[in-house]
Amino acid sequence: MAVRDVLAYLVASLGRLDSLGVMDIGSEPLTFKRMMQRYAEARGLPRAIVPVPVLAPKLAALWVGFVTPIPNSLAVPLVEGVVHPIIGDTSRARRLFPEIAPLSYGEAVRRAIARTDAGEVVTRWSAAAGDSDSSARLADREGVVR
């Protein structure tokens, strides 16, 4: 989902008591596999997705942390979402905020890639680990394996 759409929902919900609580938002439902395939297509990257036996999410998150710059604090919830996929019910958001039309996944990816390539992204997910004295350093780059 595009950050602009998340912000649109947050701004539109300000001061509205009927929007209190947890609300699913988003565009078309997609599996993580399909999202990765579509991202690779948009970037022009060759990607092979190899199914592996389901591991415990924390163990799988450690593997993700080993081959990517994603910190475990982000990897664990991401892996849990892959292992136990959930399709959100966005009907409440659509009913309360009919003026918001979220971008499709493909359009959100295209715009994000364009902004990243143009150097217009102020913050990056690789900064999510915060400041630490760790010897590990995160770097922004294409690809998966460090």
Textual characterization of the structure:
This protein is mainly α. The protein has six helices and no strands. It is globular, with a radius of gyration of 17 Å. It folds into two domains: 68 residues, no CATH class; 55 residues, no CATH class. Helix 2 packs across helix 6 and helix 3 crosses helix 4.
For the structure shown, list the relevant keywords.
2 domains, mainly alpha, single chain, 146 residues, 6 helices, globular
What's the short version?
The protein is mainly alpha-helical and 146 residues long. It contains six helices and no strands.
Could you give the topology of this structure?
Blueprint: H1 3-13, H2 32-43, H3 57-67, H4 72-83, H5 91-96, H6 105-117
Helix pairs in contact: 2-6, 3-4
Any low-confidence stretches, pLDDT <50, length ≥5? 133-138
The total count of strands amounts to 0
Largest sheet: none
The mean pLDDT is 80
| The number of domains | 2
Gyration radius, rounded: 17 Å
Structural class based on helices, strands and sheet pairing: mainly alpha
One letter per element, helices H and strands E, the order comes to HHHHHH
The rough form would be described as: globular
Estimate what percentage of residues fall within beta strands: under 5%
Helix content: 40-55%
- Annotation field: number of helices: 6
Distance between the termini: 26 Å
